[in-house]
Design brief:
Helices cover 24% and strands 29% of the residues. The chain contains two helices and 15 strands.
Amino acid sequence: MAERPSNEEIFAKLDETRERLDTERIEGLKRMRVLQDIKKNSLEREKARLVEKYGADHPRARKVARRVAYDQSRIRALDAEIERSEIAPGEFDRNTWLVHGRVIDADGGPVEGAIVSVVDESSKPVEALGQATTDIRGYYELRYVVEEGEQPVLDEGDDLFVTATDDEGAVVYRDETPLHVAVGLIDYRIIVFSEASTELPPEDEEPDIPSDAWVTRGTVRLANREAAAGVVVSLYDKDLVFDDHLGTTVTDQSGRFSIVYRAEAFRDLFEQRPDLYIKVMDQNGRRLYGSRRTVRCEAGRIEEFDIVIKGSVTRRSRR
């Protein structure tokens, strides 16, 4: 009879498997990056051909030029995801509560120079956590350390909220899902600086949007119909070869989201309407929902989704 492996051997095997899968994922992202470069070079050659044949102001030339510019933002977002996948927090022990994550824009690209801090219910900064400025990867890290024998200065029952300001000092983000102190644990929060508002208009009121703008909005709920607050929603247009990333946002306290995008983000010579699908992730990057197999084809300018995800929303990990 085979000897049962010890807990230490099981944990070691799990760590080894996780590291291998992380490496494979990073390599897959890098291969996708190479394909994006191939597509970009092809579009740039087509742009040059059209400019030479018709001139830069010709509608076809302008259309390809807009597509080239948009794909540049997708490449930046992919580069940011590769960087995020390679990020590992610094030293961590059982006396530390770590709050870390990334600040990204609506295209998924990193926001450098944002100032991230934690405030209490009255919006007063929590000095014990200090503040952090995001680096070139959009990464930030806040730590609360309780030394052996010391009295904690923060109450585990207090509601705390992650906030972020831009490089001009304006508050542009305040998480609506509270944090709670938990020494020995890690909280990972993604902050999205999005131009799209998550405030939905009344059901009987048609939103006022520009003629070249499209809106996808909706609600994300758990299986028990409770609102899934603070999850990351990304919208895509499915294409034959390369899917277009149309925007990313975070659900509000009621689980609602709204993403606004422009027609040039998906239109080409063959496609006048997008084929939409959605991905939902928790703030640890774990996939909760995906609708790529049930694409909403030929979507209109205003689309609504009622999304139900299975299981719970993971926010913390133990080191």
